[in-house]
Design goal:
There is one protein chain. The protein has about 325 residues and is α+β, with helices and mostly antiparallel strands. The chain folds into four domains: about 70 residues, Winged helix-like DNA-binding domain superfamily/Winged helix DNA-binding domain (Arc Repressor Mutant, subunit A), CATH 1.10.10.10; about 45 residues; about 90 residues, SH3 type barrels (Roll), CATH 2.30.30; about 90 residues, 2-Layer Sandwich (Alpha-Beta Plaits). Helices cover about 40% and strands about 25% of the residues. Strands 4, 5, 6, 7, 8 and 9 form a six-stranded antiparallel β-sheet that branches. Helix 1 crosses helix 2. The longest helix has 17 residues.
């Protein structure tokens, strides 16, 4: 097959991939018109294109043939690496990630759209439809993701500085800027942020760190042996990614909150009916500011039954809230 026919075959494949799908097809005349427009070649005819279609079909680029109006055969390519719903999941995940800049979202979505036909790609929402990105240094986060990913895959210890912003919007380092040495176990996406989960070597404890608060990260040559660790259990028990002491808790909820509880703890959650209006959740969780705030979110529709010291912490928080509103 000469060079010209190779080029034509590639362009035919591109046209079928980009412009046809389960709901859109093209006839021979339409394919010829598009090919001539792209290649500038007018020497081929219908028989040539039909042979090209058979060649593509034999090369695992499946060609679907359907009979259109007046008995004319229409051609399409319907096989994709991703189903439409899968691409929509990827698309929406990118759009809902607040730390990604609008400009970067546009670049990513443009690449995602190349994985399907132009017709389906047009149905995906644009970045402007979603809220603007949070004030996070995306360039730093990108570099941190690369470093953490490499350290996890190679089993290397990470070292970095960590901190947070004060009321003056100044970034303040924890531990006076001393470097953290962490054995990285996982990188997860939770509550609109990336978190590194790993062993903090100074205390030999499993901890998590927000990636956008990490500074001056470096992958060391030091290797480590990963201990047994249940990532899903750790995430489930860490409310809003606040660390704390693990304990078993019981909370009474109004029945109107059953879906909230199942969304948070899953359908395997240990819940039982208490009376006509309430049910009780029994679970393990970490005593933390995140847990306390989550319980308070539901007002008088949630009451801690145990442990007692969690009850007291809730009471103290309510008292402090009341005080600021009392003249």
């Amino acid at each position: 097959m000469e060079r010209g026919s190779n080029y034509r075959l590639l362009q035919l494949r591109e046209i079928l991939f980009n412009e046809t799908d389960d709901y859109h097809d093209l006839g021979i005349d339409e394919l010829i018109e598009k090919l001539r427009s792209v290649t500038g070649d007018a020497t081929f005819d219908k028989r040539t294109i039909k042979r090209d279609l058979e060649t593509l079909d034999s090369m695992d680029f499946e060609i679907v043939r359907n009979q259109g109006r007046y008995g004319k055969i229409k051609y399409s390519h319907q096989t994709r690496l991703f189903e439409t719903y899968q691409l929509r999941l990827i698309n929406d995940a990118i759009l809902s990630a607040r730390f990604i800049t609008t400009n970067e979202k546009e670049k990513l979505i443009k690449k995602v759209k190349t994985l399907t036909s132009t017709h389906i790609a047009k149905t995906f929402p644009e970045p402007i439809v979603f809220s603007q990105s949070a004030n996070i240094d995306y360039e730093r986060v990108k570099l941190n993701i690369d470093s953490v990913h490499r350290a996890i895959s190679e089993g290397k210890v990470l070292t970095y500085q960590y901190g947070k912003f004060n009321v003056k919007k100044e970034f303040v380092y924890h531990r006076n800027g001393s470097r953290y040495h962490v054995e990285p176990y996982a990188l997860i996406w939770q509550n609109d942020f990336y978190y590194l989960i790993g062993v903090f070597q100074d205390t030999n404890e499993i901890r998590h760190y927000r990636l956008d608060r990490i500074r001056n990260i470096a992958v060391t040559d030091e290797t480590f042996k990963k201990r047994a660790f249940n990532l899903q259990e750790y995430v489930d028990q860490s409310f809003h990614m606040f660390a704390g002491e693990e304990m078993r808790i019981k909370i009474r909820f109004h029945n109107s909150l059953v879906n909230v509880v199942l969304d948070r703890f899953g359908h395997d959650a240990d819940i039982r009916e208490l009376d006509d209006e309430h049910f009780v959740l029994s679970t393990k969780a970490k005593l933390s500011e995140g847990l306390v705030n989550w319980i308070l979110t539901w007002g008088n529709r949630a009451k801690v039954l145990s442990p007692e010291h969690l009850q007291e912490r809730i009471k103290n928080q309510i008292s402090q809230m009341l005080e600021i509103y009392v003249d």
